[in-house]
Amino acid sequence: MTKPEQTASPTLLFYSYRAVTALLAPFAYRKVAAKLAAHGISEARQRERLGHASKARPEMSASAPLIWFHGASVGESLAAITLINRLHSRLPAARFLLTSGTATSAEMAENRLPDCAEHQFAPLDTVGAVNRFLDHWRPDAGIFVESELWPVTLAAAKARGTRLALVNARLSAKSVAGWRKKLPTARFIMGLFDLLLTQNQSVAKDLLSLGANPARVFPSGNLKAGAAALPQKSDVLAEMRTALAGRPLWIASSTHRGEEETILDAHKTLLRDHPDLCLLLVPRHPERAEEIGAKITQAGLTYVKRSSASPFPEQTQVYLADTLGELGTWYALSPIVFLGGSLLPIGGHNPFEVAQAGAAVLTGPGYSNFLETFPPMIASGGATEVTNALDLARAVDLWLTQPDQLQKAQGAARNYVADQSGQLDVVVDRLISSLSLNSSERAS
Asked: Which of 89, 198, 273, 333 could crosslink 169 through cysteines, CB 3.0-4.6 Å?
């Protein structure tokens, strides 16, 4: 592979970071390995974090690219899988590698990656781990999702001629401010990318302010809009519909500590006019189930936990879904979904998954991680913003009592997602062109 153009030189800060991470590598590995072990990940797979591959590099022709995607966790990995599927349809000879850092993302990848792709845990951002990883996999291109700016990894890949892209890019205000304090290093990191595709114009301006080449930066929307709909469990869906027996239902999903009180207050208000209404409460962290159950009881409401496998009594007012991997099933049960992580300044959660299931979206104002998504979605009528328990109760009541308004919101949500997912073809075209993915002149 020929070495692509690089626009800035490494800095003293970069060399210092590289030296420090090498010294801290044993301690960092012990920490990440312990987390993986706690989720039942084997020792062999834990060692992938040190760059020791657990699978062979796929055999392919010299002209076919091995395209490496990296996403931190589940959400980023899902966006990567969306692009893998689209790219494979255009480049059938290509093979793909997806790396991530969490056990849950690995489990998801195992279930949803196509046959042309493999998953590995990402190497730690240290010279030894990264070099072992690159020696084995020899990727032709590296595509990083959202905000994964690992200096050692990016610099080592670029030095070997790997063409690099950052897709679905977003940086928090805090992160941008931090990079601006070390602008020469930021300029070096930005210069490593051959292509930077941002979620919105604001992020594009931030990257340009950090030294990115204007000819390589393009706003391209949120790739999560094009992800496949969440899987549903038909048997669980049928079981729940039988248990509900026609009762109205609304969902509060991905809730965080400090939000459940507001949601339960809203539900108590709704029960005055809708005494048979059920709330399906899905906490972001299921291990909080006991804590949340105590809050439900303190609010004077009855509940059943999903994990208890108890019958669903007719009088149950709250169903506490404290399990993983069933979100798509829950979304299919009700057209009214409130997305948590938004009543407090947490950042919000993915509304595309809700809309793809056919539901309309309610959100609080704290959706900073989806600033490119929620304002236009709200403007289209596909989502409604609420700020407190009374707002939330009124919004749910409107959609319970005026089905025509609910159907209008559902349609607007679906149309918004369809419009956003249309950006994917443009993204794929840019990746193929900028990273030379269809080139037959690729050296071994």
From this structure: 198
Using alpha carbons, select from 155, 159, 217, 165 the residue that is nearest to residue 188: 155
Strand order in the sheet with 278-283: 303-305, 318-320, 278-283, 249-255, 336-339, 360-363, 383-385
CA dihedral 13, 127, 122, 196 (to 10 degrees): 50
Q: Enumerate domains of the chain plus CATH numbers.
A: 12-221+423-434 (3.40.50.11720), 234-421 (3.40.50.2000)
pLDDT at 366 over 70: yes
Q: Is-contact 101 94, C-beta < 8 A? A: no
Average pLDDT over all residues of the chain: 92
Q: 43, 48, 76, 239: which one is catalytic?
A: 76
Residues in Cβ contact with 355 at an 8 Å cutoff, skipping those fewer than 6 apart: 361, 382, 413, 414, 416, 417
Amino acid identity at 90: R
Q: Are strands 303-305 and 278-283 parallel, antiparallel or unpaired?
A: unpaired
- CA-based radius of gyration for the chain: 23
313-323 in b/e burial notation, b at 16+ Cβ within 10 A? eeebbbbbbbb
Report d(CA 46, CA 136) in Å as an integer. Answer: 17
The residues, any chain, with a CB within 8 Å of residue 220's CB and separated by 6 or more, are 167, 168, 197, 198, 199, 423, 426, 427, 430
Segment 151-174 shows an average pLDDT of: 94
Instruction: Give the per-residue pLDDT at 444.
Output: 39
d(CA 367, CA 301): 29
Query: What pLDDT does 61 receive?
Result: 85
Q: Is 239 a catalytic residue?
A: no
| Residue 429 main-chain phi, psi, to 5 deg | -60, -45
Please state the length of the chain.
Answer: 444
C-beta contacts of 367-374 below 8 A and 24+ residues apart: 367/341, 367/342, 368/172, 369/170, 370/222, 371/200, 371/202, 372/170, 372/199, 372/200, 372/202, 372/203, 372/221, 372/222, 373/199, 373/222, 373/225, 373/420, 374/348
Q: Cα–Cα distance between 344 and 257 in angstroms, integer?
A: 9
With a CB cutoff of 8 Å and minimum separation 6, the contacts of 13 are 182, 184, 185
Give DSSP secondary structure letters for 226-286.
GSPPPP--HHHHHHHHHHHTT--EEEEEEE-TTTHHHHHHHHHHHHHH-TT-EEEEEESSG
Please write the tens of the pLDDT for every residue from 289-343.
Answer: 999 999 999 999 999 999 987 777 778 999 999 988 899 999 999 999 999 999 9
The residues near 214 (Cβ < 8 Å, ≥ 6 apart) are 208
For the entire predicted model, the pTM comes to 0.79
Rounded CA separation 295/17 (Å): 45
